Amino acid sequence: MVVEVGYAQAWDLKACAPWRPISAEVARERDAAGLPYVVMYREPGREAPLEVRLVSWRDHYVGLWVYDAQGRRTCDLDLRLLDDPSRLLRRYSVGWYYTGPEMAEFDKACPRVTVELFPDGRGRRTEERQGQGGGSHTALPALRDDERWLDRPNFGQWPLLSARVHGLVDPTAFEVAEVAVAIDPGDGDAPATCWRPPRPAQPGPINELFRPGARVTDGYHPEMTVVEPRRVGTLRVPSGRLAVSGPDIDHGDGPRITVPIPPGEYVLDEARVRFSYHCEWRDAEVTTTEPTAVRLLVSETPAATWEMALGPDDDPRLFIEEEIAGFDTDGATGCFADAGAWESLIALFERGLIQGESDLDGFEDIEDGSMFMLRTRDAASGGELMAFATTGDGTYPVWVGRSEAGEAIGVVVLVEGMPELLPEQDGSPADAVG
Fold it and tell me: What are phi and psi of 268, to 5 degrees?
């Protein structure tokens, strides 16, 4: 059987078509340089491709989409290049099982199976059946090496990985399609509808959460106005290492996140928004003010960029789309603390809050209506911990703002989700950073 192979700079998912077709020679050059390109496999007489592969070695990523005869994507395979250059981890895969030719692509009622694998041997399988909103999660047992890893083929020597899916059992001959018009791929960005490697969660308009007058929405309340940040105290960090973690989680290995900052005492403040909503039990319009984020302010210099802080075991090469890293909490609580006195500060937290010891030196319960709950202080070093309430359990990312010179100017935890910035009142978009 003959399968036609074509190359392009990108693949337009909406149009199901290549963007800027390129020759095999140009694709080979991009492969060697680590630049992204796609490979399309087509069967003569079939409109939809058999599969499309996106390669971007600079992103440690190879992705594969498999298409059915109706042009619907049926399988998404995410491969990652890690420390061994000769093989690829089968990091993530999703299979959609359409119940008929009339079912739309990614229909919510379509059964699907998701598999996540990690290089340390862990894995999880999630099955979502037709008509059910949730899924059943199963921890995968140890898999064979060839089930977890794929040998990395050289350029032009990739097999048709979806051959069995399409029922192609005969030997396959590949023919490279000719490019009708030579197009300089250039360095321009592909349209937003084009496929790109997965990105972790992005910072969003963090600067604007501390700028009074900025307008945001959380998706539930259509308009919320940022008001003046509220100062809630200070935090002493004599060690020069700021810990950000959930104080209610087992800390056998220390705090989840640490950020180097100059030793000193820093202002803690909370971002707040004011909004109105209809209160059902009052049957009236009510205006309220709620916190959205907490910040340790290192410098008054505005942040030029924001980055997600990583823990010691976080590997960005393994992140899937919109994935976050951060600290976990089972008690809707986070904290900023001096990492140099971490063990002492956490011990005081547990004794004062969990064990309920009264009149405990170094433990202060704050009851002034602030979202912050309590403070502990290590007598030996002067290092402090300040615990604050989040809106629930789960994982909370830690965002580090940096100046143009790369210095840390602030550390922020959003206690809600990441809001969306609304246009200014005159209709011009707000100047969001990040």
Answer: -110, 130
pTM of the model: 0.88
d(CA 376, CA 281): 39
First to last CA, the chain: 50
- Taking the C-alpha atoms of residue 84 and residue 188, their distance in angstroms, rounded to an integer, is 31
User: How far apart are alpha carbons 323 and 68 in whole angstroms?
Assistant: 28
Per-residue pLDDT band at 432 (split at 50, 70, 90) = very low
Strand bridging mode 87-96 / 112-117: antiparallel
Q: How many domains does the chain divide into?
A: 2
Q: How do residues 227-247 score in pLDDT, each as one tens digit? A: 999 998 899 999 999 999 999
Q: Check residue 194 and report its DSSP letter.
A: B
The predicted structure's pLDDT at residue 339: 96
Residues 138 and 246 in one domain: no
373: tokens are 């709950």
Q: Is 19 in the same domain as 81?
A: yes
Domain that holds residue 48: 2-176
Give the mean pLDDT of the chain. Answer: 90
For the CA atoms of 208, 211, 217, 220, the dihedral, rounded to the nearest 10 degrees, stands at 120
d(Cα 200, Cα 21) in Å, to the nearest integer? 28
In this structure, which long-range contacts are made by residues 52-60, counting pairs with CB atoms below 8 Å and at least 24 apart in sequence? 52/11, 52/195, 53/158, 54/11, 54/195, 54/196, 54/197, 55/31, 56/197, 57/31, 57/81, 58/34, 59/197, 60/317
pLDDT score for 285: 87
Q: Does residue 427 lie within any of the structural domains?
A: no
Kindly report the number of other CB atoms within 10 A of residue 10's CB atom. Answer: 21
Span 379-396, pLDDT tens digits: 999 999 999 999 889 999
Domain boundary among 176, 196, 231: 176
Separation of CA 326 from chain center: 10
